[in-house]
Amino acid sequence: MTRTAAVISKRSPSSPFHPQSGYSLVELSVVLVVLGMMVGALSIGSGVHRTSEYQRIKKTFVDQWASAYNDFYVRAGRVPGDSAETPTFVVNAAADEDVLELLLAVEDGDYSDFVDNDESLPPRLCEGSANDTTPGARPSDTTSMRELFAALGVQLPSGRAEGQEDRYVYLDTNGNPQELQVCFQWNPPETLSGGGNVMVLKGLTPDLARMLDATIDGRINAVAGAFREQRGADAGDSPEWTYDVRDSVDESVGRNESQVRAVTAHYRMSQ
């Protein structure tokens, strides 16, 4: 073997004397299509999982709290927190003696003198503080909602844990935890979120709020039907829910890094 032949035989595969093989445009296209299908499948799977979780929240948490409320009414002959001696059929009316006296003075069901967010309204009935800072929120008192229901033997949803049956933890579209909390309150007739006794649902992602709205009312409208958004008195009457999944708690960071901004809704009870 000549010296030149020996040198050529020792060259590495990257030598220009050994052409490299590569992917053709057709092969690259196939790879990109497969990757696209995989990403699409993951996205669809995530959406299906989220929808399933929302349905579970409605069935095992929201619906069961509505059932517990109705069970309380059937057993006690009054709504939770109402006066046992002089029922007013107003949630938590007995929490404040002055408010109870005003409610008992009402004639022929005329509550026109009561105004939303006025001091004459009974406090929100929660298990501990609702800590609700969204517009239109009403303060809660120290009455234990759990003890009121338990005293009558009313079965409560499992919720987050024993002693926290009023809460449910789930993940938003960014994968961050959200805590849903249930309270009850009475709204005067002209309240934008609906008059009468309502279940208050704090900590709803916009997607979950819209799903519940569509399921309960048959359409999505934040200011009509039995399921409405809690808003301040000057918030306007737009049928659209205030936020969507692009709105985050910290607007200075990207949507994939921050918790989705939540809303509070009022679900009108039958009693």
Quickly count the helices: 5
Q: Give the tally of structural domains.
A: 1
How big is the Rg?
Answer: 29 Å
Write down how many β-strands occur, each being a DSSP E stretch of 2 or more residues.
5
Describe this structure in words.
- The protein is an alpha+beta fold and 271 residues long.
- It has one domain (49-268).
- Helices cover 32% and strands 13% of the residues.
- The protein is built from 5 helices and 5 strands.
- The protein has helices at 3-9, 25-76, 97-104, 145-151, 206-217, and strands at 167-171, 177-187, 196-204, 227-229, 263-268.
- The protein has a 5-stranded antiparallel beta sheet, covered by helices on one side.
- A hairpin with a 5-residue loop joins strand 1 and strand 2.
- The termini are far apart.
- The mean pLDDT is 85.
Give the helices and strands, then pairings:
Blueprint: H1 3-9, H2 25-76, H3 97-104, H4 145-151, E1 167-171, E2 177-187, E3 196-204, H5 206-217, E4 227-229, E5 263-268
Antiparallel strand pairs: 1-2, 2-3, 3-5, 4-5
Give a nutshell description of this structure:
By secondary structure, the chain is of the alpha+beta class. It is about 30% helix and about 15% strand. The termini are far apart.
Search tags:
elongated, alpha+beta, 271 residues
